[in-house]
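pls design
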C-alpha cells in the first residue's frame, strides 16, 4: 500500500536528514495530520522552536494540501526514554 503522506515525510527529511517521521490522518480527509518527528536537530531547542522548525519546512503544503497539524517532537534520547518498557 502506498503511503499517502510520503510527501510530508520527504519534506521533513529534506530539512532534517536524521529524522524519523510518522504521519497519521486524524479525520479521514487527508488534510488534518498528526505528525511525530524524532531528530537530534531539536536538541537544545524549546518546544515552540521545534514546532516552528517543522512549520517552516511545511509552510508551502500548509497553504495548499494540509489544513491542520498536530505535532509531536522528540530528540532521539527523549524518544527512547519515553518509549521504554
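designed seq:
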Amino acid at each position: 500500500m502506498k503511503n499517502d503522506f510520503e510527501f510530508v515525510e520527504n519534506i521533513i527529511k529534506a530539512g532534517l536528514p536524521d529524522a524519523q517521521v510518522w504521519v497519521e490522518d486524524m479525520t479521514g480527509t487527508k488534510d488534518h495530520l498528526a505528525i511525530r518527528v524524532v531528530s537530534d536537530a531539536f536538541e537544545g531547542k524549546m518546544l515552540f522552536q521545534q514546532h516552528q522548525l517543522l512549520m517552516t519546512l511545511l509552510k508551502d503544503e500548509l497553504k495548499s494540501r494540509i489544513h491542520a497539524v498536530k505535532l509531536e517532537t522528540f530528540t532521539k534520547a527523549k524518544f527512547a526514554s519515553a518509549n521504554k518498557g
